[in-house]
Amino acid sequence: MDLDKVIRSRKSVREFSRKKPDWRAIVDSVNAARFAPAAGNNFEMKFIVLKNPDKINNVAKSCHQLFVAEAYYVIVAVSDPSRLINEFGEEAGQVYCRQQAGAAIQNILLKAQELGLSTCWVGLFEEHEVKVELKIPDKMQVEAVIPIGYEMKKSKPKNKIPLENVIRFDDFKTKKINDTNKNES
Fold first, then answer.
1. pTM to 2 decimals?
2. Residue 184 pLDDT exceeds 60
3. How many domains does the chain have?
4. Which CATH number characterizes residue 46's domain?
5. Which of 24, 26, 120, 148 has its CB 3.0 to 4.6 Å from that of 12, i.e. a possible disulfide?
């Protein structure tokens, strides 16, 4: 599948079938995260793949979104900002850590889509409860919970906001490109 098709077909799924995905597709999806940009080449992400139904149910409860428990697998994305903070300072280190996490999670979502799997990026959860359930050290940050599996009923992605509503040129107010600039070489 080409990249544009993967990007345009990706959507958040909240109804999963109980069909078991091949675990190798889950591992391939997580592997894609390793190729995300990382500040200072410090990749500080870990991914916990859940297949135990009790653990999945407990994490779903901590998300206050029980559809998470419908997925056959759940990936929990975790980061450790300490090396980035040491290298770039508290504020920048935290920002870079979150940026890295977002890029890595997006890679997982896109790879899963390419492999015919469905996902949802869940950002609402009780972090302490997830940490306790999965024995995640206090210094780590839970970045996302990602149910992954097969969609119950195939549906099309929702229409996205038009490009002209999100793109600007040279400043925030300019919505059209000025292509009469003769200074370009």
1. 0.89
2. no
3. 1
4. 3.40.109.10
5. 120
